[in-house]
Write a structure and sequence with these properties.
Chain A: One of its GO terms (cellular component) is plasma membrane. The complex is a heterodimer of chains A (293) and B (269). Chain A has 293 residues and is of the alpha/beta class. In chain A, 33% of the residues lie in helices and 23% in strands. Chain A is built from ten helices and eleven strands. The longest helix of chain A has 16 residues. Chain B has one domain. In chain B, strands 1-2 form a two-stranded antiparallel sheet. Classes of the chains: A alpha/beta (293), B mainly alpha (269).
């Protein structure tokens, strides 16, 4: 039997808030990830994703419970270069260049030989001599990704890795990750974009309020998260600048009520869908972006 | 489109690898040092400002003081001020790096926290040597006069003693978090330098109060080889123990504040 990439048992973490009350960030989480899996940590902000990631990396100690990465304490896995991460809250030094940043972290890993490889891998070659402070949010995110590749890890943990990337860069990023995963790297990523989990992960762990509320194939989790919805486009003459005509909506409600439809929600087209339609890129899923609430 | 990330993967995680490569601490320190020396604004306050103050306050003044001349006395003071600004800003920046997130990147490497402190101390001490070397060179060229012991001992004391202000910079930046903390720490050094009798000789009540401030003991010790504790303008004499007591007391205070700031920062994680 192979050693799991991640084995967490009864993982629990509480913080003391400024007013003295105890806040439960992660509530008795059990999780096992096998080598080679691609797992999405899906959940809204405040679901406990980042705290869980911190414990998986040994940056924070659990209040109770245990966590092992490749059978050892997370910190040892970090020291051995078996796990690395793109941190949501990790900072870069603004007055290093892109190349110096990679060289600095590569030196600390004792892997200076990796500098050029990861620069190329994250396609940072053209901007290698640019100061970090002159890089866009998406470029900085790619630099963090390059840093995560320095130790050539077996497990990469990505915390909201596409923050700051535009839609096209986000898709390129996931294409690159997919290629990586095909080579056998284990990938765990936290996201609040259902579409990212949907497009990329084989398995989705849905977190809410510090607990795992669903864990299974992404298709199953999507089904349990909510039934499919049907979009329809009203005739243009009932749509004004202030929305859809109320009288027409009332008639629609009355018309569909006999079919057992109880919830009728009016929403505007998602920005991402509109963006992709306008820029000619193809959305990776039918619902381009569906942030969880 | 420039944001392309689709370089084909040519590397696969290998099952068996030689693990536990050792951190190349020197390579990191070299990069960090270069980054520091490249910071024009920072280096202005560390090197150019004290050199300018030396020019204003007594460059070439040949009036005798102790075993040297006034030019030398002012030169040591200004070199000490530059060195202190250097250690304060490097240590302060180190603390800010930690609280602003770079520390989390470092935490994901095999580097031990103590080794990180060692790297930063080494960088701070190298940067501190820059204003001392430069201002002593200017002094030598413009008529600062003293015997060999004056030159060597004062430089050594100014350099070694500036380490105290690395602790100071650390403490201030751990207590006042945020990107402005290092600026606050360096700014306070200017005020403390006036009070510490570093810029212009003081007398009366301000001098009495000044003797209790953190730069007084350090600057006095750096000048001791030439002044033997006598203050300019017949303002009196300081015994060595007073200046040593000043340095020891402030070391304890700054270290205590730094530890307190560190603990406070951790609780808020």
């Amino acid at each position: 039997m192979t050693t799991p990439a991640i084995r967490a048992t009864g993982l629990h973490k509480t913080f003391r808030a400024t007013d003295g009350t105890e806040v439960v960030a992660v509530d008795h989480v059990d999780l096992t990830v096998q080598p080679g899996e691609i797992v999405a940590f899906l959940g809204p902000n405040g679901a406990g994703k980042t705290t869980t990631v911190d414990m998986l990396l040994g940056l924070t100690s659990p209040t109770s419970g245990t966590v092992e990465v490749f059978g050892v304490h997370p910190h040892h896995a970090v020291v051995e270069g078996r796990v690395s991460s793109v941190l949501q809250t990790g900072g870069l030094l603004p007055d290093f260049t892109v190349r110096e940043t990679v060289r600095a972290i590569a030196a600390l890993h004792g892997r200076s030989d990796r500098t050029d490889v990861v620069l190329e891998r994250a396609n940072l070659g053209p901007i290698a001599d640019r100061l970090v402070q002159a890089c866009s949010g998406g470029e900085q995110q790619r630099l963090k990704f390059a840093l995560a590749l320095v130790p050539d890890p077996d497990l990469v943990i990505l915390d909201e890795p596409t923050t700051g990337m535009d839609v096209g860069a986000r898709q390129d990023f996931w294409d690159a990750m997919r290629a990586d995963a095909a080579q056998g790297r284990t990938i765990v990523f936290a996201t609040h974009y259902l579409a990212e989990a949907d497009a990329f992960a084989e398995r989705t762990v849905l977190m809410a309020g510090g607990r795992i509320v669903a864990d299974g194939t992404t298709a199953d989790v999507r089904a349990s998260y909510g039934a499919r919805s049907i979009n329809l486009r009203p005739p243009t003459d009932v749509v004004g600048p202030h929305g859809v005509d109320e009288a027409w909506l009332a008639r629609l409600r009355a018309a569909v009520a006999p079919l057992g439809i109880t919830d009728l929600e009016v929403s505007s087209a998602s920005l991402e869908a509109a963006f992709l339609a306008l820029t000619g890129a193809t959305p990776s899923t039918d619902e381009a972006e569906e942030a969880l609430r | 489109m420039t944001d392309v990330l689709t370089t084909p993967s040519t590397e696969a995680p290998t099952a068996v690898r030689t693990r536990a490569a050792r951190p190349q601490v020197l390579a990191y320190a070299r990069l960090d040092l270069r980054r520091q020396l490249r910071d024009r604004v920072g280096m202005f306050f560390i090197v150019a400002l004290p050199a300018f103050l030396f020019f204003v306050f007594g460059m070439g003044d040949d009036e005798a003081i102790g075993s040297a001349n006034v030019a030398m006395y002012v030169m040591v003071s200004m070199a000490a001020y530059g060195a202190v600004t250097a250690t304060t800003s490097v240590a302060g920046a180190a603390a800010t790096e930690q609280t602003m997130g770079w520390g989390r990147q470092i935490a994901l490497t095999p580097l031990r926290p103590l080794a990180f402190v060692g790297v930063k101390t080494a960088v701070a001490m190298v940067v501190a040597a820059v204003p001392i070397a430069l201002i002593y060179a200017i002094g030598a060229a413009t008529g600062s006069r003293g015997n060999a012991v004056d030159w060597l001992a004062s430089a050594a004391i100014a350099w070694a003693g500036s380490a105290l202000f690395a602790i100071y910079g650390l403490a201030v930046c751990l207590l006042f978090k945020g990107p402005n903390a290092a600026g606050i720490a360096s700014g306070l050094i200017v005020i403390l330098s006036f009070l510490g009798n570093v810029f212009t000789p003081m007398s009366g009540l301000i001098l009495t109060i000044g003797k209790l401030t953190p730069l007084y003991g350090y600057a006095g010790l750096a000048r001791y080889p030439l002044s033997e504790g006598y203050l300019p303008m017949d303002a009196g004499h300081d015994p060595v123990w007073l200046m040593l007591a000043n340095v020891v007391a402030w070391t304890v205070i700054f270290a205590g504040l730094a530890v307190w700031g560190l603990r406070r920062g951790r609780e808020r994680v």
